[in-house]
User: Fold this.
Amino acid sequence: MELFLNLLVELWMHQNQVVYDPTNTPLAAVKVLDQYTPPTDDVLSALLLTLVHILSDSHIPLLMHPSSHVVLKAIQKPLYDFLQIGFARATPASNPTSFYMLADTLLAYLQPWQCVSWNNGEAPTATFTSSYTAFVLANYHFYTTLFGHFITHSRDLEWDERSLDMLQRALAIYSPELVATLDRAYSALDNSSGLTPPESNILMRHLSEFGLLATGVSLGQDFRRNAEHLLDKMQYMKDLLPHRRSSSNFLPAVFTASGATSSTESIEARIQTLSQRLREVFNIPSTYVPVSVITTTPLKSFSLASLDPTRIAPFNILLSSEGRQQVTAGYRLCSTDSVTYIGDPILKPISSYEIPFLVRFLYRVSMALNTLFGFENPYEGKQTLEDKVAVPDTFRINLRWLAAKGNFLWVMILFLGTYFFLW
Assistant:
């Protein structure tokens, strides 16, 4: 079994060499030394099934004893690095499919009691009990650091039924008993009290195997600001639903009775329930009032002045690359939807509506054509935000628009239509 798992780890999880900066802190930034190789959907599906099979053993909590079996020990650290770099690269905005599959893998690993119920043919209604305390402590940073990163990136979800189901499953894991266990572990790392000696040994061995300092990570302290941003996004969706219902549901309302309205109302109720659970898990005070990021007021009058791009100062709506990272990490009170890229438009991050390999290919073609015709890059040598904003508009060849899925589809239709009609 150990040889089989080591082979799977080498094939599935060691495709990227993951490093942390700084190296020994739990909240360090994660990156890869070489070019990032994203996992395929088949690898993610196989990994999820393998984890469910391993965790379906009802004796998993006993495996965390110092004289335990090597099954979980062989997969723990590689899985942690795999999920860390996965969540850092596969966000809901850039790669929603991989993000959902990574989230399913993490949620399956966080609740072995559900896997045991599934293996025994029982209804998946089991929750955390004290018998799984050893497992939780031996995977402390899975329950704190990784889950915090998952909540951070959840702000970019589409907020459909699938997203709500995933968030509901995620927050349901953190029962009051589990949250209390994590709080005791944090207290033990903070002031050396809160855990029994055997429990403390399990936690310290987990930190030493991961090469981390004995520093606690608290969901209610280190990730509460990110959870508050998620509450803001939930409030935004609640405010947006009535407008979406009145506009996009017009035609369904003509042919149906009241299905669209009831569906929208159920989504609003689910968002309200999830907001309450989020407050409980991340210890968000009741005095915190979520702020919707809707800032567009209804258009009552129109003038050409409203189309003037200089009516808003650029520094009020644009961030540097460092600022984008701060917004993504939850360090700034700003919605990721309002972040705009600054710099060479050819080099802007790949969006979810673009085909990655076409972006890279068209970048090389555009740069070659610009060099051939002598079009200079006005952004060359510009490092600061002020320099990039002040760059004048100059003509350059940028074929990246062809990498958009919609544009690429229309070009292919035009090409095939021309081919069939002419030949």
